[in-house]
Amino acid sequence: EDQVTQSPEALRLQEGESSSLNCSYTVSGLRGLFWYRQDPGKGPEFLFTLYSAGEEKEKERLKATLTKKESFLHITAPKPEDSATYLCAVGRGSGGSNYKLTFGKGTLLTVNP
Amino acid sequence: EAQVTQNPRYLITVTGKKLTVTCSQNMNHEYMSWYRQDPGLGLRQIYYSMNVEVTDKGDVPEGYKVSRKEKRNFPLILESPSPNQTSLYFCASSFSGYNEQFFGPGTRLTVL
After folding, report:
1. Searching chain B, which residue's CA lies closest to the CA of residue A38?
2. Do the beta carbons of residue A82 and residue B17 sit within 8 Å?
């Protein structure tokens, strides 16, 4: 059974205080690891896709990295507007005929001014 | 504007009364999916569809039905809703399952 575990469950930072969120996963046949941001009452918004160990992607203050067992979302010098729930998801496909996505429970990030 | 739309956005119903939540996308995406989000349980996949007439179960399909007769639409059907199906539901679409998914605004369902 696919498993995705995110830690910490909640993180409170001061503006400018850099940190990292963790996503550890167990899946056979990983076909992609996704990071999403979700604001209260809204649908998740796509941030990154990583496909293979060693891959890194950056967007503004966010940088995502991937190993064979986990992914990190690094937040550099966060601002209050970065406050949100960050979701990690892994995709598993078999034979190109189906594609199932499993989400972690998320990390609630609060950035105080 | 590229988007995923869901209707209704809010629904209060009673146990056993059949209902349908519609989902439509205007991006010509092949992959569509339904999720439910519950406090403490996160986002869980109900059903997904790789293309027209191709659907498959996610992690929590019990009590739900779907159909994909057209590429742009993927309705979620609750034949006999029960209180444990009270949840926030999201529809999503992508070019294929391997790409970023675009999520709809959500449907908050309460079953009394």
Report:
1. B103
2. no
